[in-house]
Amino acid sequence: MAPAATLISAALAFTGGMLVATQGPIYARLSMGLNRDYLIAVFLAFATATVVTGMLALFTGSFRNLSVATLGQLPPWVWLGGLFGAIHVVISMQAIPVLGVTLFLVIVVIGNLVGAAIYDHLGAMGLEVRTFSFAKGLGMLLVITGVGVVARA
């Protein structure tokens, strides 16, 4: 990958991470305003996302590429992404008021890293196989150590 593309991708990933950090507190506040009804809060959050992305897809012409045949060719497990996202949102609504955003997210990062290492190593979900290594394990151990530091702070 070209250095400029790498830099842009890294900047976008950083921005995405910053946006993810806002979601938990927003969802937690939404839930509190709805008498701690996590399910209606998740429904409203995902309904908002559905409407906005649906409008963008409509205005950009993305729906022209959508067909029943295309949907039928997808592996059934691709539909789990939305379900897992909803589960994560419910978890964040419940955990962030207890743990705080920072501790919650560093724990999430550990979960992300462990899952990512497994998925890469296995080539799961059509990914390229990227074998687990001592260096990756050491890096993950350093992150876990960092979580311990954050938890004690």
UniProtKB/TrEMBL annotation:
<feature type="transmembrane region" description="Helical">
    <location>
        <begin position="38"/>
        <end position="59"/>
    </location>
</feature>
<dbReference type="GO" id="GO:0005886">
    <property type="term" value="C:plasma membrane"/>
</dbReference>
<protein>
    <submittedName>
        <fullName>EamA-like transporter family protein</fullName>
    </submittedName>
</protein>
<feature type="transmembrane region" description="Helical">
    <location>
        <begin position="71"/>
        <end position="91"/>
    </location>
</feature>
<keyword id="KW-0472">Membrane</keyword>
<dbReference type="Pfam" id="PF04657">
    <property type="entry name" value="DMT_YdcZ"/>
</dbReference>
<keyword id="KW-0812">Transmembrane</keyword>
<keyword id="KW-1133">Transmembrane helix</keyword>
<feature type="transmembrane region" description="Helical">
    <location>
        <begin position="131"/>
        <end position="151"/>
    </location>
</feature>
<dbReference type="InterPro" id="IPR006750">
    <property type="entry name" value="YdcZ"/>
</dbReference>
<feature type="transmembrane region" description="Helical">
    <location>
        <begin position="97"/>
        <end position="119"/>
    </location>
</feature>
